[in-house]
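Appendix B. One record, verbatim.
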Amino acid sequence: MSREWIEKQWEGAELGDKRLIKRAIKIGKSCLETPGGTLPEKFGSWGDTKGAYRFFDSDRVSHETLQKVHNKNVIQAASRTQKRVLFIQDGSELIYNTHKCGHGLGPTADAFGQGIMFHTALAVEWARNEAPMVIGVAKQTPWIRPEQRKGLKSKEQEEKESQVWLNTLKDIGRPPSGCQWISVGDRGNDIYDYAIGAGDEGWDFVVRAKHDRTVVVDGNKARLKAWIRGLQPQGNYTLDLRARGEKFSRILELKVSWGQALLQPPQSKTGNSLLVTYVRAYDPEDKDVEWILVTTLEVASVEDALTVVQIYEDRWIIEEYHKCLKTGCRIEDAQLKTGKRLLALLGILGVVAIELLRLRDLSRQEPDRPAKDVVEKEVIEIVRVKYNLNGEISLRELWRRIAMLGGFLGRKSDGNPGWQTIWKGWLRIQDMLTGMAMVRNCG
């Protein structure tokens, strides 16, 4: 794994003590090498485990201070690229319903337990018909919800949490001259104040519409959904729909239509109108498959409309990030006793998950790249011996073989391995490396 990358994420961190910086790097490396293990399993000794606990308890250590260098690195990289950059936003939660935490957690969306809410903006280098490349976390905001009667959110709390979408863009800053930064969000992002504020901050956006708003089309008021559904399709889009619940993955041919409208303030508010384009992508045979997208990007052709649809399709990358954080890094299994410690752990693992995601995606984006360019030679050698492989091993071959150690069958029809089999296999690799080290020490 890329240990040099880990060092760059905490070099110069504002922790007020060089020893804390060294500890942050050491914890980051341990989490990268053993992403799914408990803290004692990650650190290998009781002394290092106690050092990690002291580190998380330090007043100088917080989620913000632990991610500040990484955030800065990501924004600088996004400013240098010649491609568009998507800043994919989404919220999630860490649930510790069965966790024996002493204090410092709050209600979660299920309203029954305790946990941490967090919102992430993932920066992704993007070009049409090319594999998107994850840059990193541009901004991550965690918070503890205050206790509410019967576990329900107050209207004040709900409004406060809805502001995180726009506040995230403000924290990242205005796009530099010559750069096109596009904020991408799901239906929870369909907020009038956000749309107006994003424009004021110089951002473009692609957001899935949730509300059946009143819009103005050619000077006439109309209900959004009735108007957009009445437009004739002008293009087609092939969607590789991923499996969800009981529904298998499948290939769909979507119809695409679009039109311009003025986005109006809600009846309860006063404000300016905003000229936007609505793009509808839908399956005529399945009413459950429909995306109504609102964007500030110019849509003057079929190609432009398909670009908007593809941008939204690539929103799934942030869901993969959440899977990496929860399934790969197993952050919800951490047995830390305070909310402060868990927030600090999120500060570390929220960064480590980026490198894990990047390494896995490289096997798909650059499948023929030699594994030795990315992964330590000891890992490659274990896979080589285990499967009796000769010659150069590619990234794709390496990760499929590692996933096979975790239960992935590896048949041609199986597609790419998922997080669970990858990390089960990776943990077995780590066990083998530990065993080899013990043999060498005994010798």
